[in-house]
């Protein structure tokens, strides 16, 4: 599991690693440059015109080493030196000296920045790194504005986009990367949705620093990757029967909003639930029976909305419950949710309108517990805890809520954050912009409920559900792009198992 550590700890981390391994800081910089180039070769052609923009610190040193290595591999490279020679770091200076005589390196004055025209296919930003602690100004600001305005180029940031602080929210301008190749671990600010336009696609390049060096700086934040998920999946015997794969109940729906609970139910089946049942208003029984014959359906007393009384007998037979999609926020629905939370004490996924009811009636929150998983999107979350200034504050409040109520809170979005009552937070690495479509959250509800029902335990169920939901979205959008809809994600769930190599 990759740690997400503070930018302030990086210098000490590098120092400890260098001392332990008996290498120089320049050798570590070469490792980083080589890791970047290994990734770059898989993405860009040698006939692409590559401009590498380097500052005078260690990020600039990375860029100079990258330029040298790419030039030796036959790439059409030109290096631009930004920011003058003031306070050039030792490793940056050394990499300047190591540049081949035939590799063009141009020092950029303020006048050059204002008037030069760049004929490039790829722009590599290595101007400023994780040490930025104030808004950009001077040559760096002017160069970033110029590069951001270039048409028809691919923009790649080395470690972190210039201007972006590593642990705080951006003030002012920053380089707008299409891809950010960060070294060894993702920087905290790369997880913020406010920074999405600057980070682009995030790729983490391994430069050989082991977890034992990072653990001493742990802030209990982790980056969830494939290797962390595969080992959490359960293996079932060939003699397993449908009961072994879990009996789940999906509760929700209202007149005109039956699709949400239907998608949650189908997602639970595609994730592997042996038996799935829906509890819906009576208006939804025929809809669900006709559209999803694999499920059982029973109804509450109301025709249009979930309401009291409902059938309590037999709830103990369900291994997990997902509640909320499409249920509405009527007074009857509020009474229903309170009664249900008081009655069913097994693991639950609480989503959508159920979260909105919890936000409106704080008293119901006392019934939340360690086997409960809340899955709000940002707006639903802020109804729970209040308006937040930025995503950093949202993450802080998510952890506070999880600790205070003893539940798991899944804050959905790019790099979905999972907060646990023990103080840990996990950030997801899968998913893409094409999943921003109605119903995608209902699919996640069904998937996590399914894993809970299969006996994964709360932590493994949530981590596997969130990661595999994003992976299914990636698979579904390969040939559909922005045409991807929630049911496409459901159809891709089986392929996500194949991709992970999970039987």
Layout of strands and helices, then pairs:
Layout: E1 2-3, H1 10-21, H2 25-41, E2 49-54, H3 58-72, E3 76-82, H4 90-97, E4 105-108, H5 110-115, E5 122-126, H6 138-148, E6 154-158, E7 179-183, H7 196-199, E8 201-205, H8 211-215, E9 221-224, H9 226-230, E10 247-251, H10 259-271, E11 275-280, H11 285-291, E12 296-299, E13 320-323, H12 331-343, E14 348-350, H13 353-360, E15 372-374, H14 378-385, H15 391-405, E16 408-411, E17 417-419, E18 425-428, H16 440-453, H17 458-477, H18 486-500
Parallel strand pairs: 2-3, 2-5, 3-4, 5-6, 6-7, 7-8, 9-18, 10-11, 10-13, 11-12, 13-14, 14-15, 15-16
Antiparallel strand pairs: 1-9, 16-17, 17-18
Helix pairs in contact: 2-3, 3-4, 10-16, 10-18, 13-14, 14-15, 16-17, 16-18, 17-18
CATH architecture of the largest domain: 3-Layer(aba) Sandwich
Strand count: 18
- In the CATH hierarchy, the third-tier topology of the largest domain is known as UDP-N-acetylmuramoyl-L-alanine:D-glutamate ligase
The strand order across the widest sheet is 1-9-18-17-16-15-14-13-10-11-12
Helix content: 25-40%
- The rough form would be described as elongated
CATH superfamily annotation of the largest domain? Ribokinase
Rg, alpha carbons? 26 Å
Number of helix segments? 18
**How many individual domains?**
2
State the end-to-end distance: 23 Å
Which stretches of 5+ consecutive residues score pLDDT under 50?
A: none
Question: Based on helices, strands and strand pairing, what is the structural class?
Answer: alpha/beta
Largest sheet: 11 strands, mixed
Percent of sequence in beta strands: 15-25%
Mean pLDDT: 95
Q: Given this structure, which CATH class of the largest domain is correct?
A: Alpha Beta
Domain YjeF N-terminal: 10-215
Protein name: Bifunctional NAD(P)H-hydrate repair enzyme
Subunit structure: Homotetramer.
Binding site for K(+): 59, 125, 162
């Amino acid at each position: 599991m990759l740690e997400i550590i503070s930018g302030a700890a990086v210098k000490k981390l590098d120092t400890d690693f260098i001392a332990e391994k008996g290498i120089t800081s320049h050798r570590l910089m070469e490792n980083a440059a080589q890791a970047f180039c290994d990734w770059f070769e898989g993405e860009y052609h040698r006939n692409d015109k590559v401009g590498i923009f380097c500052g005078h610190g260690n990020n600039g040193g990375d860029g100079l080493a990258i330029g040298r290595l790419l030039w030796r591999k036959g790439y059409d490279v030109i290096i631009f030196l930004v920011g003058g020679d003031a306070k050039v770091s030792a490793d940056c200076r050394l990499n300047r000296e190591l540049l081949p005589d035939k590799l063009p390196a141009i020092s950029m004055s303020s006048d050059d920045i204002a008037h030069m025209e760049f004929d490039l296919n790829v722009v590599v930003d290595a101007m400023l790194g994780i040490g930025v602690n104030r808004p950009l100004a001077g040559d760096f600001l002017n160069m970033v504005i110029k590069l951001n305005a270039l048409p028809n180029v691919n923009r790649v940031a080395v470690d972190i986009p210039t201007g972006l602080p590593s642990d705080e929210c951006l003030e002012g301008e920053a380089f707008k990367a299409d891809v950010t190749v960060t070294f060894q671990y993702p920087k905290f600010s790369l997880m913020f949705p406010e920074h999405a336009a600057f980070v682009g696609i995030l790729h983490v390049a391994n430069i050989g620093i082991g977890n034992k060096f990072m653990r001493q700086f742990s802030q209990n934040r982790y980056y969830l990757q494939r290797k962390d998920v595969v080992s959490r999946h359960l293996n079932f015997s060939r003699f397993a029967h449908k009961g072994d794969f879990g009996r789940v109940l999906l509760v929700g729906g209202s007149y005109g909003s039956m699709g949400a609970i239907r998608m949650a139910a189908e997602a639970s089946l595609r994730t592997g639930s042996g038996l799935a049942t829906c509890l819906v208003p009576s208006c939804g029984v025929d809809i669900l029976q006709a559209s999803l014959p694999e499920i059982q359906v029973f109804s509450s007393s109301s025709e249009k909305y979930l309401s009291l009384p409902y059938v309590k007998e037999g709830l103990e037979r369900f291994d997990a419950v997902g509640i909320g999609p499409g249920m509405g926020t009527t007074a009857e629905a509020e009474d229903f949710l309170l009664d249900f939370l008081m009655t069913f004490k097994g693991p639950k996924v609480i989503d959508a309108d159920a979260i909105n009811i919890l936000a409106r009636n704080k008293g119901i929150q006392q019934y939340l517990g360690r086997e409960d998983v809340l899955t709000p999107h940002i707006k639903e979350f802020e109804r729970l805890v209040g308006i937040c200034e930025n995503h950093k504050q949202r993450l802080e409040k998510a952890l506070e809520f999880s600790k205070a109520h003893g539940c798991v809170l899944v804050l959905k979005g790019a790099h979905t954050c999972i907060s646990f009552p023990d103080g840990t937070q996990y950030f997801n690495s899968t998913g893409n912009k094409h999943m921003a479509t109605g119903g995608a959250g209902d699919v996640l509800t069904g998937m996590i409920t399914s894993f809970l029902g299969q006996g994964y335990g709360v932590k493994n169920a949530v981590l596997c559900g969130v990661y595999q939901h994003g992976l299914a979205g990636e698979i579904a959008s390969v040939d559909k792009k922005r045409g991807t809809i929630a049911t496409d994600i459901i159809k891709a769930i089986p392929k996500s198992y194949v991709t992970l190599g999970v039987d």
